[in-house]
Amino acid sequence: MSISAPFRKKDNPGSSLFQVWLGWSLGFFLVAALFGLAMRYFTVGELPAYIDYKNLLHTHSHVALLGWGYLTTSAALVYFFVPDQQKQKSYYPLVVLAILANLGMVLSFPVQGYGTYSIAASVLHMLVSFAFAFKFWKDIRKQPSSDATQLAACSVLWMVVSSLGLLSIGPVGSLMGRLHPMFFISIQWFLHFQLNGWFVYAIFSILAFRLAQKGKSLSLCNWDWAILHGSLFLSFSLAVSWSTPIPGLLYINALAVVLQLIAYIRILRPVWSDLVSEENKTWIERLLLLGIIFLFAKALVQSILILTPVAVIAYTIRMYVIGFIHLIMLGAMTFTISSVLLQKSLFSNSFLAKTGWMILVSGFVLTELLLFGQGTLLWIKAGFIPSFYILLFLASALLPLGLSLITIAQIFNIQSTFKINSILNSNQTMKKSLTLAVGATLLLFASCGGGDGSSSTSAPSSTEAEAPKAADPNGVGEIKDVAISEEIDDGMADKGKAIMDMKCTACHQFNDKRLVGPGFQGVTNRRRPEWIMNMITNVEVMLDKDPVAQALLEECLTRMPNQNISLADARNILEYLRKNDLEKAGEKDGAI
Ligand code: HEC
Fold first, then answer.
1. What is the pLDDT averaged over residues 39-56?
2. What is the pLDDT of residues 370-395, one digit of tens each?
3. Are 382 and 15 a contacting pair, CB within 8 Å?
4. Which of 90, 200, 209, 225 is in the most buried spot, having the most CB atoms within 10 Å?
5. Pocket probe mutation, ligand 1, options 57, 504, 556, 572, max atoms within 8 Å of Cβ
6. Residue 561 C-alpha to ligand 1 middle, in angstroms?
7. Which residue minimizes the CA distance to atom 12 of ligand 1?
8. Using a 6 Å CB cutoff, which residues line ligand 1?
9. Nearest to 339 by CA among 6, 85, 7
């Protein structure tokens, strides 16, 4: 059997507008990839001092999730589950607003980080996504119920549920402070339900739809649904355990990842066997197969976390965390949803585009191998792959390269479609909604800009209020007095360096540039040796009680994890930090 009827390329007059919609999402994908590449450049070369790593990260993650992820997934859901063309058009005002919100984020996050305009743009996006969810929910309820429609309905439901995390960030931040574990749990809630709920269910729904078009079905029973939803909720326990180490949580997660694996197998097996049975597979079908493999790999990777010691350590190896998020967004979501859209010619499938997709896949696979490979090497204390950061940077450069080709191909495609079917009435709908959207956005920005700029960003933090209490320069913890001699003990410093390569370099560099945490250069000139060792061995308490550590946390917005470093190892690390300062800053122990 060749490609079945609904998936044969055919001209749908409404499709030109979907091509524009998806053209924008590709544009945001490209922007996200460029910001990601700039972040990787931090470990390779020098960027001008006014470029802030954290702001790049905010821009990258917001535009990747809310630009590329949201726009593409919502386009696919509307295209497949709202068949009526008139109804499809009624979504365009929401699309235009979402595009404007993303443009607002692209312009504001790099400059101000979390600030008035970037928060206004994120709030606009959230409101638009709620309106979308509401509208889509109403429309899909009118369709005959099937596994596919139910999965799609759940997908938008999880999208709304994920936003509860975002909504609580504001109140939690101002009532409990940004240092409170609830603040981190709110952020994790958002990410968890976005990645594992909204995107994964949307992928499932589209795969189920594709299967139904061929007269086959997933035939999910009540148990399957219970396992699928249950594993989604229970696996959130892992994220909670990171900020609040309650012992039982890791066992709940272990159960959840096993259930999840079962649910994914139940859903993906019929899809897989249908796909592999197709003869003469095109490159697009192969891309779809690849996307499904990545989705399954995600569940497999998570199921390794039944080993609870692994669950504890995996989170502290930042290369794993980044590799994992990319596995869902780049591997699973991007390749599955894009290939069904490619089959419908909503994404250009020209030779140029095909080349772009191939480059994108290679960039993704190479960066994943590097991240997971190096993460594992650090774990088993095997050091670094030679020129690791340069290799990672080069592999990452493939992503924006591929995306540029795909985006250019899309623009050509849109131009030719518009030339062929100059049904310009639809164009007018676009114009009308654009005017409407610009008006609404200006209004929103005006009302936010008028207020006190700081109101939404930084409610006076508890640390500032307590500041008068003189801080102990030794920090908080059992280390009260460290004996150091003028000479550096190279043996100790080497041991310290080996531990840091494994456990610290994912977040800290040895120069003066901040990555996730501050650069180490000059640290012994700013902090006393006791403070440094307390920070390394007693980090939770330091972050809760020590004003200097709290100020750093406010700045970095990431809690440094406890890495179970022994006192002896902490002493060795201190020795290497002194050596590093002598070499890089020309001076050590300046804070004593
Ligand atoms: C997951 C990221 C992460 C890892 C891994 C990590 N840190 Fe940190 N570190 C931070 C952050 C972020 C801060 C700033 C305080 C905060 O926000 O928690 C910090 C702060 C520090 C400081 C204070 C720096 C200063 O300028 O005062 C020291 C010292 C430090 N870390 C040492 C270490 C050591 C040693 C390791 C490895 C054993 C390590 N860190 C691993 C994220 C990390």
1. 84
2. 999 998 888 887 778 888 999 999 99
3. no
4. 200
5. 504
6. 8
7. 517
8. 316, 318, 500, 503-504, 506-508, 516-518, 523, 526-527, 532, 535-536, 543, 549, 552-553, 556, 558-561, 563, 565, 573
9. 7
Q: Are 575 and 489 in contact (CB under 8 A)?
A: yes
The arithmetic mean of pLDDT across residues 331-357, rounded, is 95
* pLDDT tens profile 477-507: 888 888 888 899 999 999 999 889 888 887 8
Could you give the CA distance from residue 550 to residue 557 in angstroms, rounded to a whole number?
10
pLDDT at 449 over 50: no
How many residues are listed for the chain in this entry? 592
Give nearest CA residue, ligand 1 atom 2: 507
Task: State the distance from the centre of ligand 1 to the C-alpha of 495, rounded, in angstroms.
Answer: 18
Q: Token digits for 28? A: 């945001």
Mean pLDDT estimate for the chain:
86
* Rg of the chain taking only CA atoms, in angstroms: 25
Residue of 53, 501, 507 to test ligand 1 pocket, by largest number of atoms within 8 Å of CB: 507
Task: Look up residue 336 and give its two tokens.
Answer: 């599955």
